[in-house]
């Protein structure tokens, strides 16, 4: 088994289970060590995290009672404290608890899940632990709802979940399961004093073929962000359940599909909305939208126990360039200072675009270029010389630069891969690799994004076949840098 300490750690979680009252006025304060840790790291750095994790409060329900009774550990197994320990073990700096909702689940979160989160924060202060839920989205599927860290975070989630979560009023959800009710929910979130963040989970999981979307469509994504631009910031580029093709002993399972995408599969482990160049993501970016992507575990239960999941950080990581502070991480997420990677292919990335004045912008930022001038791009990434948690040391074999036009007739053309770089094209400085190129005669507003892979055989990420080993097909994606033209 890959984790011989796992069951020992499970026993340890009992030490961190704290009985708390349902009132929260005295349960919010973090430990002094957590505050000291944040104060000791004032400079921004790449911080790995996971915003989609299910624990024991992702319940199933006993429908024989009125109201229905939650059956804890019904859909997911583990305590928050265990997840925090495993997040730390897999080198995460932050995580978000995102349990499913259900009939009256807002009270389950308020009275039980939140006190457990507070106890876990004290037990593992090295990992910043956000409060949230997997929002059962009206008229659609699921989103990660991330609540800002505050003294009123428990009440904020209770208010939003009880008033707007689709499944809160099961079994008769018809009045909430509409597109208009979703817009109503988003307007309320946008008006919060400290607005939450909403990230669309596994957006194309129900697609039966390429560019054929159900429930979650590009049109809905646009409406959601237009309604709540401070709330709706993007989508899972790489969904969870990536261990769906693995048996408990780590061998591949012939029928298993990565991500649980049973109709139209993932591509290189990424959702088609992200993976297809010139597809949904590029379409949104070509409108000038700040639409970001992430990677998550969607962990319910580890594959070594017969389910489909990796631990948080074991396979997928979302890196955020921020100070190790709750507010700073959320702000960096809103600004798109993120990249997504699988298999620890890289752990640091810069995509710096500069103008003739020497001004520069990096991931999530905007640089102004004078019309007709040449801009320069410097890509710098770290390919760690170390084993990942699949006990492999993968190498980046290729980096692709993708450039798309914004609000221009040129945007009707699929965003091209303008250059593919291999090891012969980059400079090596220890574990860092540096690539340089120019964009000549810039005349249109545009964006630059990159991706990289250890896969020597695929110029474009191909459909993931059943039984494919996720460790053999790794990719990373940057969020874009925007170029404005004056």
From TrEMBL:
<protein>
    <submittedName>
        <fullName>Phosphoesterase</fullName>
    </submittedName>
</protein>
<keyword id="KW-0732">Signal</keyword>
<feature type="signal peptide">
    <location>
        <begin position="1"/>
        <end position="20"/>
    </location>
</feature>
<dbReference type="InterPro" id="IPR016195">
    <property type="entry name" value="Pol/histidinol_Pase-like"/>
</dbReference>
<feature type="region of interest" description="Disordered">
    <location>
        <begin position="238"/>
        <end position="260"/>
    </location>
</feature>
């Amino acid at each position: 088994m890959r984790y011989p300490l796992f069951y020992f750690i499970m026993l340890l979680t009992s030490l961190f289970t704290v009985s708390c009252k349902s009132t929260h006025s005295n349960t919010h304060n973090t430990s002094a060590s957590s505050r000291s840790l944040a104060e000791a790291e004032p400079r921004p750095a790449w911080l790995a995290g996971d915003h989609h994790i299910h624990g024991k409060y992702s319940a199933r329900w006993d429908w024989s009672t009125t109201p229905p009774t939650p059956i804890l550990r019904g859909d997911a197994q583990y305590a928050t404290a265990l997840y925090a320990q495993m997040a730390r073990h897999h080198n995460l700096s932050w995580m978000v608890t995102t349990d499913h909702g259900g009939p009256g689940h807002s009270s389950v979160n308020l009275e039980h899940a939140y006190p457990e989160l507070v106890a876990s924060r004290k037990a593992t202060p090295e990992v910043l632990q956000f409060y949230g839920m997997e929002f059962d989205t009206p008229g659609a599927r699921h989103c990660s709802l991330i609540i800002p860290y505050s003294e009123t975070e428990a009440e904020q989630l209770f208010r939003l979940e009880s008033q707007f979560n689709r499944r809160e009023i099961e079994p008769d959800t018809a009045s909430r399961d509409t597109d208009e009710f979703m817009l109503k929910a988003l307007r309320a979130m946008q008006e919060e004093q400290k607005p939450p963040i909403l990230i669309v989970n596994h957006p194309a999981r129900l697609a039966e073929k390429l560019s054929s979307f159900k429930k979650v469509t590009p049109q809905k994504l646009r409406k959601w962000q237009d309604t709540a631009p401070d709330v709706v910031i993007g989508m899972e580029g790489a969904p969870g359940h990536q261990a769906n093709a693995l048996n408990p002993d780590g061998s591949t399972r012939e029928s298993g599909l990565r991500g649980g995408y049973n109709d139209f599969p993932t591509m290189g482990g990424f959702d088609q909305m992200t993976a297809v160049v010139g597809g949904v993501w590029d379409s949104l970016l070509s409108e000038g939208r700040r639409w970001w992507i992430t990677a998550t575990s969607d962990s319910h239960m580890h594959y070594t126990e017969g389910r489909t999941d990796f631990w948080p950080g074991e396979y997928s990581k979302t890196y955020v360039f921020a100070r190790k502070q709750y507010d700073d991480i959320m702000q960096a997420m809103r600004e798109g200072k993120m990249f997504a990677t699988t298999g620890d292919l890289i752990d640091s990335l810069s995509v710096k675009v500069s103008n003739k004045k020497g001004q520069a912008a990096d991931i999530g930022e905007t640089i102004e270029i004078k019309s007709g001038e040449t801009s320069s791009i410097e890509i710098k990434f770290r390919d760690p010389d170390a084993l990942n948690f699949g006990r492999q040391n993968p190498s980046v074999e290729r980096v692709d630069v993708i450039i798309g036009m914004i609000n221009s007739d040129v945007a009707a053309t699929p965003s091209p891969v303008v250059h593919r770089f291999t090891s012969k094209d980059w400079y090596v400085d220890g574990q860092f690799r540096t690539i340089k190129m120019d964009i000549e005669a810039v005349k249109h507003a545009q964006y630059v994004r990159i991706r990289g892979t250890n896969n020597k055989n695929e110029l474009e990420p191909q459909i993931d076949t059943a039984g494919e080993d996720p460790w053999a097909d790794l990719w990373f994606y940057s969020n874009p840098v925007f170029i404005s033209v004056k």
